[in-house]
Automatic annotation (TrEMBL):
Superkingdom in the source lineage: Bacteria
Keyword Metal-binding: yes
Co-factor requirement: a divalent metal cation
Name the record gives this protein: Phosphoesterase
Amino acid sequence: MKIGIISDTHGDLQGAKLALTKMGHIDLLIHLGDHYEDGIALKEHSDVNILMIRGNCDRGSVGEDELVLDLEGTRIFLVHGHQYEVKTGLNRLFYRALELGCKVALYGHTHIPVNIKKPELLILNPGSVTLPRGGSKASFGLIEIRDGEIRSEIAAL
């Protein structure tokens, strides 16, 4: 299973559409918040299955703040990240994901890509496809789960 991950589109679908094109064939697209409505709009322009969560700028949107998925025998924690203060560190996110029995934690919020692989947990932030920060380029994430093995990467637009 190949999963595309985007975050922090902030109302600009151009970068998200470009990311979708660059991802090639994916089985699922995950939007990690800060513009939940962008995920809804992408559903209208794509035939790929899209899951979305709300971010700190999505108050008033109807959707989940956190999700736990079971895909290909892998448990995945989805959160925007502001709830776990990811701008100051990843400890709270790390331990919450482990508490939930997850092997992967996906978050956004910082607009800075992260791809940390530890034996007990993969932590990935795709960065932002429209408003990169911290000297990073506009980017998205990819995860492939095959035969119990998890591969991840960050790709620049």
